[in-house]
Amino acid sequence: xxxxxxxxxGYDYELPPEYIAQNPAVPRDSSRxxxxxxxxxxxHRIFRDLPDLLEPGDLLVLNNTRVLPARLYxxxxxxxxxxxxxxxxxxxxxxxALVKPGKRLKLGAKIExxxxxxxxxxxxxxxxLPHGDDLARRLTATVIERDEATGGRLLEFDIPTDATxxxxxxxxxxxxxxPYIDNSQAAPEQYQTVYADRPGAVAAPTAGLHFTEELFGxxxxxxxxxxxxxxxxxxxxxxxVEVEDVTTHQMHNEWVEVSAATVEKxxxxxxxxxxxxxxxxxxxRALEGAAAASGDFSLQPFCGPTSLFIYPGYKxxxxxxxxxxxxxxxxxxxxxxxxxxxxxxxLDLYLRAIEHxxxxxxxxxxxxxxxxxxxx
Length: 376
What we know:
Blueprint: E1 32-36, E2 42-46, H1 50-53, E3 59-63, E4 65-67, E5 71-75, E6 81-91, E7 94-100, E8 110-113, H2 133-136, E9 140-146, E10 153-157, H3 166-172, E11 198-201, H4 213-221, E12 225-231, H5 235-238, E13 254-258, H6 260-271, E14 276-279, H7 281-293, E15 302-306, E16 321-325, H8 332-341, H9 343-355, E17 366-369
């Protein structure tokens, strides 16, 4: 490793704004795919070509988390509007949230939330005031603590003790697209993978957005299997790095579950010479985090938090290859991918992708890193 591999400035690049994807590809598997097949070569492909690029006996590991409608709009009683992004439940009906504007929400502040207009989760905040029965069941919360690590607030929601906030989110919450997606016509379900079934994330595991049921069928016909892990994407995945020496960055915990069935399938795949492909950086973090939690770095079933941070110099335990999107500059996600193929190589690939007008970030195109391209 060189000193610049651990320097935040080493992960910067210039992206013309027109290459930030505002809408997903339709159909999903028609997105472009940059297939990195050796330390010095790559191919321009389409994502539906994936079965031809993998080998029979390979195993895809996908993150089955589902994005919560975690963005809420409200206001202080008879006061200014506020916007809330739920991050994680700390205790029953008490959630860590990022708030805008934070200065308006001191300890003890009360927030009244607005339901959807016309029952549409795709609409903006409701401009209609509740009345009658609606007023009696209005969703409210109180600020009970400031979280120094994130700058967020801990909100205690005023919900009956036998209920949970999840029951209210379908009526009050909106699927939270990232801030760089500011001109999208995407429906909320287009920001979910086709296999999402474990609600709990505040952002999608975007590498999985490229898969369709038809593509899964073709992969299965070729002898390429799949299994699932769960990592509820939270602040740890996209919290910005604010230290120049990236090795001192502290990752926020995210909740992970790697089941015994998934561990057994991975062991069987490796025993017969198959390769493990993590679909997305969250699947990478789930698998490698579970191995790190075992104590001896062997993959074991795991359920709990992980704060694993992967950057150049990391020794891989489970993952042989990665399917991933193109990530924001200076992000932990770029550092993770650099740990597999090297920082200079990754930056050069990003430059080639820009030259060939690939679409970047959550709704953008994908990259496949084959094991032959891994840096020793």
